[in-house]
Amino acid sequence: xxxxxxxxxxxxxxxxxxxxxxxxxxxxxxxxxxxxxxxxxxxxxxxxxxxxxxxxxxxxxxxxxxxxxxxxxxxxxxxxxxxxxxxxxxxxxxxxxxxxxxxxxxxxxxxxxxxxxxxxxxxxxxxxxxxxxxxxxxxxxxxxxxxxxxxxxxxxxxxxxxxxxxxxxxxxxxxxxxxxxxxxxxxxxxxxxxxxxxxxxxxxxxxxxxxxxxxxxxxxxxxxxxxxxxxxxxxxxxxxxxxxxxxxxxxxxxxxxxxxxxxxxxxxxxxxxxxxxxxxxxxxxxxxxxxxxxxxxxxxxxxxxxxxxxxxxxxxxxxxxxxx
Length: 324
Prior knowledge:
Layout: H1 13-32, H2 37-55, H3 60-67, H4 75-82, E1 84-88, E2 101-108, E3 111-118, H5 124-130, H6 137-152, E4 157-163, H7 170-174, H8 177-188, E5 195-204, H9 205-209, E6 216-220, E7 224-226, H10 230-237, H11 244-251, H12 255-260, E8 266-268, H13 279-297, H14 302-314
Parallel strand pairs: 3-4, 4-5, 5-6, 5-7, 6-8
Antiparallel strand pairs: 1-2, 2-3
């Protein structure tokens, strides 16, 4: 696994300071052969208390910051820990391969599945390759190619969501990124196999939705899923990105609000402090939930899956008809 530098968010700094004190004390104890066990236990208690204080009541904006934490596990990190025999496929057979979306066949608890994920990079070189996790239209067309392959061979689809949004560049517009997303939505609505979508970090706008029209939509507790980023919303409504925290509150984009609104079906717990603190622990939680939901969905007939999927998304939101 790649060596990852430590990174702390502003509201995490009291905890990081204590953890540094503990690390120094442990090193001093090792170097001097002195017994610092009493002091070590005291700092460990203080760390646990500070964790509860820091993470027990996070604001929506703080959760957005956690969802973007650079040490957070990305799609391929989950693939490595949850699936076996992953064989990645490349290209959309129309333009080129888009490294911001990865996908291929794998096994989940002995069951063949098609895994599709939005992938970010860990460093500058990787981020340039992955386009910072922002797919181009060819990425969505590659995803659709793999989903149709899954449909043809009766493979359940697992889609892992983590993107700020689809790439908004001139090239993407010239190659019709909005059309690519719209086609994915149309086609996913009629696929005959079970589809599970999991938001692991950022779920930004149509960039996320383009591979997330699913029978079950799950989200990690510190991830977000929204029609627009808080910064984008603040720039439009307040004309100032400094109001991003207000926008995050107004957008109802955090997991608990999304569950109340019926946009997601399940919230998956993270280790205290966020998924970046224990990749294996959060991967175990995800694996258990995916296996459970896949077993349930696999019992349904194709026509029932399609009709339930349609009703699921048609029932989101409130509509008023009549004359003004």
